[in-house]
Amino acid sequence: MSLGSRDFWGAAALSLLLLVFVLGVWQISTLPKRQGPSANDEYAKLMGRGAKKTEGLPTPGQIGKTAWKQLAHPFYDRGSNDKGIGIQLAYSLARVGAGYLLAIVFAVPLGFLIGMSPLMHRALDPFIQVLKPISPLAWMPLALYTIKDSSVSGVFVIFICSLWPMLINTAHGVASVRRDWLNVARTLEVKPLRRAFRVILPAAAPTILTGMRISMGIAWLVIVAAEMLVGGTGIGYFVWNEWNNLDLANVIFAILVIGVVGMALDVAIGRLQKLVTYVD
Amino acid sequence: MAFLEVQGLSKIYPAKDGRPVPVFEGVGFAIEQGEFVCIVGHSGCGKTTILNILAGLDTASEGVVIMDRREVAGPSLDRGVVFQGHALLPWLSVLKNIAFAVRSRWPKWDRIQVELHCQKYIDMVGLTGAEHKKPAELSGGMKQRVGIARAFAIQPKMLLLDEPFGALDALTRGVIQDELLKICAATRQTVFMITHDVDEALLLADRILLMSNGPRAVIAETVKNAMVAPRARHNMHRDPQYYPIRNHLVDFLVNRSKPRATDTPQRAAANVVNLRH
């Protein structure tokens, strides 16, 4: 179903209206109680920016101000507990990128093998079925014990959670390549490697990319939790740290950033998916 | 020895209950070089299986296929196949679909050589101008033409066509039949083709194999096309031989193609019918 341009503007206007309404309700319900200047402000100045907004949720305006401050200097670095949002995001993205790429390197060839060989499919299926439903965070203690490095353990957790959707989709995509196309390759005496890259891979690519898209979604969900757990750096740690500072404006700002980055990652892979999709 | 010899071919599938039943058995025929042979029969008699065995995509339970004095043991570039459902790779353009086949045949050719060769066959099937279109942008008839061009482009010793025009409307079918006829006449291509359409068989084939119904199907008759080549669609029905042969074929399909009652396989050579009035 496609929308006409009139419908598009209508939907955009409605979205905007909804946003204004939610922000309005939020602003009204979180307006600070009227108070004269008090010792609290002095105290806050002494303590730095963290200690003031303890009375309740911050207003949209306060969050806007926080966001402005953060976005104006995204890459500042004042020690291990005070880094700009850009640096924290970079850490998270690097971990997700590393774990995700590692997962591709394992999942795609293994998925090819499982998809091509019914024997391997049967043999490996029980393992996959048992390993797949395990929460990736459950691997964390084991990873920390064996790897002995919290950052690499984070990468491992991303790897393990990205693995399954890619593996299963690759295997499914490869196994369901049309018989006709394989027969064409057979009658043309196409060598196995050429067949894998020129027939099976393009035929299965949309399914594989769907798996990658699902994996990326999960990886971005998991990285926040993983970084909260192991601490140190990253957007997840940033959220946890600001919670410990009781700076809810920063927490909410970080939540929004996580959402926007997650959407951007999804759109990027969606573009890639469009490139390899064919009309049959 | 004929160019293609098929001897004692049978295919047995294990049945769910009790003993396995052969779909067809004792199938034997020969095709001379440059001959166009059609096989006609009802659905389920194993025509496609026979074609797949000739192509090397399937294996027979019994019997041998010998082409050009060599036993057929697997798929080969010597036998081009036009598939029922065109089987084009949908992510490749027309040119690239054909180039994929050409590169398989002549891996050492450079890009220009491959493209020139492809273009020749694209022009031959009348698809000039559609080189860079994807299969999804083509009509059913155009897709099938690409399939034909792809099969011809590798210059196989023999062409196998599995009901290539089954999914096309009557007008398109007629046009492509004419083209196929022209190309085959020009290249002296040896062709084995499956069809349901009696008129198609009469137009294209020098010889028509009639298959009885399965299970235990056999080639019941071989009918020589008494109408001499070149035949043309627009005046074929005025040929005095046309109706006798046509009636004979239709009569076979309607009345005489029933499965045999006896269990003894008919190993004798199929009747050769030569209608001349």
Descriptive report:
The complex is a heterodimer of chains A (280) and B (277). In chain A, 77% of the residues lie in helices and 0% in strands. Chain A has eleven helices and no strands. Chain A has a domain at 94-231: MetI-like (MetI-like fold). In chain A, helix 4 (85-116) packs antiparallel against helix 5 and helix 7 runs antiparallel to helix 9 (192-230). By secondary structure, chain B is an alpha/beta fold. Chain B folds into two domains: 34-59 and 72-78 and 156-277, Rossmann fold (3-Layer(aba) Sandwich), CATH 3.40.50; 92-155, no CATH class. In chain B, 32% of the residues lie in helices and 23% in strands. Chain B is built from seven helices and eleven strands. In chain B, the strands form two sheets. A seven-stranded mixed sheet of chain B has the order 6-7-8-3-9-10-11, sandwiched between helices. Mean pLDDT of chain B is 88; it is low at 263-269. Classes of the chains: A mainly alpha (280), B alpha/beta (277). The interface between A and B is medium-sized, with 19 and 23 residues.
CATH superfamily of the domain at 94-231 in chain A: MetI-like
Q: Secondary-structure element sequence of chain B?
A: EEEHEEEHHHEHEHEEHE
Strand order of the largest sheet of chain B: 6-7-8-3-9-10-11
Order of helices and strands of chain A: HHHHHHHHHHH
**Mass-distribution shape of chain B:** globular
Specify the CATH class of the domain at 94-231 in chain A: Mainly Alpha
The profile of the biggest β sheet of chain A is: none
Mean pLDDT of chain B: 88
What's the N-to-C terminus distance of chain B? 31 Å
Q: If helices are DSSP runs of H or I spanning 4 or more residues, what is the number of helices of chain A?
A: 11
CATH topology of the domain at 94-231 in chain A: MetI-like fold
The value of Rg of chain A in angstroms is: 24 Å
What is the helical fraction of chain A, as a range of percent?
A: over 70%
Summarize the amount of helix of chain B as a percent range.
Answer: 25-40%
Could you tell me the mean pLDDT of chain A?
89
In terms of DSSP E residues, the strand content of chain B is 15-25%
The largest contact between protein chains, plus residue counts on each side, is: A-B, 19 and 23 residues
